[in-house]
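Hi R.,

Here are the chain sequences for the assembly we discussed:
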Amino acid sequence: MIVRKKDSNSLVHDEVYKKLRDNILYGFLRPGDVLTLRGLASEFSTSVMPVRESVRRLWSEGALKLSVSGRISIPTLNSDKFNELIRLRKIIETELAVKAMPRAHKALIDRLELINGKMEFFAKSREASLYIGANMEFHRTLYLRAQSPVMLSILETVWLQLSPTIRFGLSENWNLLDKNEHDYILKALKKKDSEDLSILIDKDVSICENLFLLF
Amino acid sequence: MIVRKKDSNSLVHDEVYKKLRDNILYGFLRPGDVLTLRGLASEFSTSVMPVRESVRRLWSEGALKLSVSGRISIPTLNSDKFNELIRLRKIIETELAVKAMPRAHKALIDRLELINGKMEFFAKSREASLYIGANMEFHRTLYLRAQSPVMLSILETVWLQLSPTIRFGLSENWNLLDKNEHDYILKALKKKDSEDLSILIDKDVSICENLFLLF
DNA sequence: GAATTTTATATGTGATCACAAAAAAAAATT
DNA sequence: AATTTTTTTTTGTGATCACATATAAAATTC
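And here is the predicted structure of the full complex:
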């Protein structure tokens, strides 16, 4: 029997995908963690089919690792891969920020300031997944203005690959977040200084570089 | 019954994925073409299951479009999306080329020259899918030296999204390929001039921009 | 004859099953 | 006690089925 949410066209495999993705994105799964189709299926109270489809999807996004025998786990990044992903963040995010800048009017900057305040609060209170969520929301809100859906979705797969590693690097390095680059980013946005903006986005991403831990 | 290739650990869904991907990549499917699970299953003489998994995978790579009701088709690009993909090619390919350059020794350049000759032949003989294949091989061979697997795989999904549109733009614009930028790229590689190399890669990708046709 | 309704077919989704192969657990051996 | 072998359990894959719904075809109405 096909189970659909009432009065909605959402599909089970898509719901499972979103839940699983968010668990990875907000740091509820650590690198190396092992998952099983049947385990996930019973956790999300469904059959294995929708889980299979969402696992296949997350795997092709680099968010999950499949062993040669198909065993599912959260990837552990070596430093080469980590640096590559950081470099990708820098390239794509500076591109998106510069493209968004001309369309970043007062209303948007106000919203960014609000999100930024929220993020600073979560940094102080050491709430990792809320901090990560607010940080991503800040960047995402800005980049959405670039109106470059393909780039944004690629960036999101990059985030997805970095998240578990950064999340657990964070637990032991909260002090790294003491100074908040976002304030300077907002200033550059107000001044419409794209040169500065590029450099600052690059710098902001650089902070993450120090969160790398070997597992 | 599970059907595996003898003495090999290749899986059916992976084989189906590769075949379907190559059909898209080498231009055997045009934008708008409609596919069905059962149709593909019988074409590849398998059941729908492996096809479902590979279609889901190609869809998440942007190579296939799924309608709200799940109907499968080859995406048609509007000019915004096309330009975004071209921009992505430029950003990622210049990055990879520059990173590959220090490791591009004589043996590699010799191989690139060989591939380039092949490509020029297929351009003259107007064999579109062979031309596309040789062109991709040229770029891929160079970029492999950058040893950046994540970037390369992202680039490949970008190619996958552009392929069908470019392929059928090509049929009516062979003349655009008269002058071959690859020769200059090879010169820059020999001179180890990364400044020049960036510009030339950018230029080479630009040629594709003119192959955009509305369907 | 064109537009609308009805019927029939095709298609994607989710559930379930069998099976091979990989892990894990248990038993036997050294 | 540690290692090897055997047995059991777990797990992913591929096949098949039922079903809802979207699309196509046929019939009906105006």
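Chain A has two domains: 12-73, 79-209. The two ends of chain A are 43 Å apart (CA to CA).

Let me know if anything looks off.

Best,
T.
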